[in-house]
Specification:
mainly alpha
Length: 245
């Protein structure tokens, strides 16, 4: 008998582990709230660190929930609804506040930009067909936290940021596919490794935002971050041009 079968033999133990999994998911909202406070205090770097922590929690909580079988052990709690509420806050509301608070797009377009992102996110989180049969996301899937981080790091100006947001708004409504590194079986081990590489390089870059790209050490982290980002773009584009849904 497997250890998992022994541990989860008791119904009370099952429910306790299921509650623990949901509490872990909910901790993503706590991280998001701390990110909100950091934004309001003008601490953009700290805000990104808390948003990154929320991203990590969201990346692994589903695997944990499936492992302890929360749907069966605690059927009265809808984990998907809980996840969507937290994701709407961390993936959409926080990035919108970041754009507004730090004036990341031209001032005359800032309200339009923020409203458009929020409305597009409402569509994303209400779309019943947001995932494909092989667990890719369909459309841009409200990855506004990642976009805002990307714009923060490359820092190419307010109009570039606005155009990038518009491009991603369009992607929301067309059937491009976006990889979920932990759920897509194809190249899963490579994708998880690249998540780790991307995360380490991203943390370095956010802590050294004004580093010199001509410094070999800083340039190495920037190059690694760009290449790991390109990996996920490549995987997603390759899947987007396949015919299966």
């Amino acid at each position: 008998m497997r250890l998992k079968d022994i541990v989860f033999k008791s119904k009370k133990v099952n429910r306790a582990f299921a509650w623990a999994a949901h509490i872990f998911t909910a901790s993503g909202l706590i991280s998001g709230f701390l990110g909100l406070i950091a934004i309001l205090n003008g601490e953009q770097t700290l805000a990104f660190l808390f948003m990154g922590l929320a991203l990590v929690i969201d990346g692994v909580d589903g695997t944990l929930a499936r492992y302890v079988n929360v749907a069966e052990a605690l059927p009265e709690v809808d984990g998907s609804s809980l996840d969507n509420v937290i994701d709407m806050f961390n993936y959409s509301i926080l990035p919108v506040l970041m754009i507004y608070w730090f004036s990341m797009v031209p001032y005359e377009l800032i309200y339009l930009t923020c409203i458009a992102i929020l409305l597009a996110s409402c569509y994303t989180f209400s779309d019943k067909n947001i995932k494909t049969s092989d667990y890719y996301f369909k459309g841009f899937s409200a990855l506004w936290n990642l976009l805002v981080f990307f714009l923060f790091i490359i820092d190419l100006g307010l109009w570039f940021n606005f155009v990038a947001v518009c491009f991603c708004l369009i992607l929301t409504f067309i059937p491009v596919k976006i990889i979920h590194p932990f759920r897509v079986k194809e190249l899963r081990n490579s994708s998880i490794l690249m998540v780790g590489i991307w995360s380490v390089s991203a943390v370095y870059l956010v802590l050294h935002k004004h580093g010199d790209l001509f410094n070999n050490f800083h340039a190495m982290f920037f190059t690694v971050w760009i290449m790991s980002t390109a990996y996920f773009v490549w995987i997603s584009l390759r899947r987007s041009f396949k015919q299966n849904t």
